[in-house]
Amino acid sequence: MTVASQVKQTLASLKGIHAGLQQLALTSQDETAQRTFHEAMLATEEIIADIKDRIGRLEFEEPQYHGK
Amino acid sequence: MPIWLETAIRSICILIGLFVITRILGKKQLSKLSFFEYIVGITVGDIAGTMSVDLGISLQEGITSILIWSLFPVAVARLSLRNKKFRDFVEGNSTVFIKNGKILEENLKREKYTVDELLEQLRKKDVFRVADVEFAVLEPNGDLNVLLKREKQPLTVGDVFPNPPREKEPQTVIMDGMILDEPLATMGLGRGWLKEQLDKQGVAIENVFLAQVDSYGQLTIDLYDDKIQIAEPQEKKLLLAAMKKVQADLELYALQTNSEEAKALYERNAAEMAELVQKVEPLLRN
């Protein structure tokens, strides 16, 4: 497995985590819990953006693995 | 009119009357009867019993007496709700038996309590050493309540985790195979969501005896068929595991990469993820 595809897998997990946190933020009844989940969700968004950026660069550096 | 018929009519009327009276007296009577209320209750019952059997007593006399006996406590309760002094007079004051870890002998004597009785009451509260008690008070209804010294108090969640995640009461959403819409709505959920969750666990609604939703939106169910195994909800644990895995992955990439810039990016995000895990772990653990 190339580095790019590994990082892509991590990106996918991150998106899953983002969705899970979002769901918990919506279904939790306690306000502090809601807020914690929401903040965590926003933080994962930043990480996702960073990783996406990195993937773009990796594909640029290793064009043979583009889109795999 | 035959005697048995009169007795029957009287008894039924008095039964209904007593039922109404107990309703008026309210729930408080059950939980903490003062000695006075106890006596009143017995007397009312006695009058009612005599009235229904003894045909020599005229109904007028009986009803007057029963009304006075039962409405007087109601009046007293009303008055004592308003007036603190009157309340102290009617219900009595509490007496402190142990203060700052020392037994107050004067107060014991005033309440005609022997040391043996005090020890017995303490043992009822699982206290066998008087030295463990910081404060003990005899309530007006005869209960002894005990505050243990700080080091002898049982451990609470707050002692171990300074800010434990809060938990609201769970809502029962399925009972006897029927969906209860109102609790579902209070959780902000609908029948569609419930269907989806049940499908995920692979059970039909008709087979569900009881289902509850906890304050994090997790569904726990009990089936009619106890042989079927259902898994505990895993979403939160899986989410936590996924977060930890991503954090580990990011750290791994930081070690593997040759580019300084990428290393910095991975390290920063790994640190952020670790912080996140720490923040949500208490909420996701159970």
TrEMBL record, chain A:
Q: Name one Pfam family in it.
A: DUF1657
What top-level branch of life does the organism fall under? Bacteria
Q: Which InterPro entries match?
A: DUF1657 (IPR012452)
Name of this chain's protein: DUF1657 domain-containing protein
Q: What species is given as this protein's source?
A: Geobacillus thermopakistaniensis (strain MAS1)
UniProtKB/TrEMBL annotation, chain B:
Residue ranges spanning the membrane: these are 7-26
Q: At the top level of its lineage, which domain of life is listed?
A: Bacteria
One Pfam family hit: DUF1657
GO CC annotations?
A: plasma membrane
Q: What is its main location?
A: membrane
**Domain YetF C-terminal, which positions?**
82-214
Where in or outside the cell?
A: Cell membrane
Keyword presence, GTP-binding: no
Protein name, per record: DUF421 domain-containing protein
